[in-house]
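User: If only I could read backbone structure tokens as easily as an amino acid sequence. Underneath my words sits a plain record pairing an amino acid chain with its backbone structure tokens. This is the protein in question:
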Amino acid sequence: MKDKIKNIFASLPEDFSLEVFETILTSGDVKLERIVSKGHSSPEGFWYDQDENEWVLLLQGRAELKYFDDDENKILKAGDYLNIPAHTKHRVEWTSPNEETIWLALFY
């Protein structure tokens, strides 16, 4: 079956009370997600500690990530990407409140 063409910037949510996580594809141990944020951050005291590696690409907007063991936060803008090894504790400190922040997250 042929898949129809989709656009990563289309079908953005109208309600931004919650971040939106959309699985784009999965295959074996690989999952690709689109995440749409607007003024969101990780809950106070919460740290991601994932079993998978995560590669993230910021397509639009701005965000700030913090690693548990690093005093220097990572500021991401459109086009920036980084690889977060499995079990690297991290959190989202903030995303731009004035525009949608669109991420691609590849878990492997």
The mean pLDDT is 95. The radius of gyration is 14 Å. The CA atoms of residues 41 and 94 lie 5 Å apart.
